[in-house]
Structures are given as structure tokens and as C-alpha cells.
Amino acid sequence: MALGNRYKTAPGAGTLAALILVLVFGSPWYGDWVVDNTSENTAGGWWLRLLHWPAWQFDSSDSLRDVVVGDLKAILVVVLTLLFLVLLPGSQLARARGTISQFFAGWAAYIFAGGFAALLATLFLTNPSLLGAFRAAGSGAQYGLFVGWIVGLASLGGWRGTR
């Protein structure tokens, strides 16, 4: 018996896509590869480097606070993606699975998650500032804008909780 889309929820699929994006492209190994093999002056290189934005790391030379803040940003992107996918009404109001509203709700959830994760993580820096928080939120929203379509595609076709 096949377990097709009947058991796929839009928030679950979108959150799983966000988790995979953060785990794979936020890893230190991908970060080293992208710096060594791409140019930031090309569109492809810029996008591949942008994928590494919610980076997580295990580096003994950094202070514990910096490591936690960096990892907090990556964790918050995933958790906030789930929260916004549940709260955004686009896919909830759709009459049928697979409508374009699910795609845009997933995409928007990732934009909001990136912006808010960066904003909240900035508050835990050693010298947080309002300008630094705004800049971080902008970079998080930029990440969500250019990468969030992947989460939107993942949440497309899922159903919302109970029918």
C-alpha cells in the first residue's frame, strides 16, 4: 500500500524542506566548498553563497556565545518556518490541495522565518544594536525571498491537518 500525498501535510513538508536546507547548505562543509569554488561576482555564485546564510558550526576557536547565536539562527529558521506555515491562512483557505496559495504560503513563511530568525538571534549578540538588528532581518528576509520558493514547492499539494 502506497503512502502518497494523502498523508503529507503542507506545514510538515515545508518544515522538512527547511530542515534539509539548513542542515545541508548551512553546514561548515558546504560553506568551505562554496567559498573555495564560487565567485560572489556571478549570479550563480551569489545564490550558492546565499544558501549558506543560516550557517551552523562547531568551531573551538569561537566563543560559546557566538557559536550559540549562529546555531540559534539556523534553529529558529526551521522552528519559525513551521510556526508561520501553520499560521498563514493561504493553504488553509484553499479549496483544493495543490493550489498556488499553498506555494505562496510556504514561500512567505520562509521569508518571515528568515527575517525573524535573524532579528531574534541578533538580540543575543554581545553588543546588539537596532541598526544591526534591522540589517540582520533584511539579510534573513533576502535569504527567504531567494530560497523560500523551495519550501513553497515542498508544501504544495499537502493537506492542512484534519479534513
TrEMBL record:
Entry's transmembrane regions: 12-31, 72-91, 103-125, 140-159
Keywords recorded for this protein, A-Z: Membrane, Transmembrane, Transmembrane helix
Q: What is this protein called?
A: Uncharacterized protein
Native source organism of the sequence? Actinoplanes octamycinicus
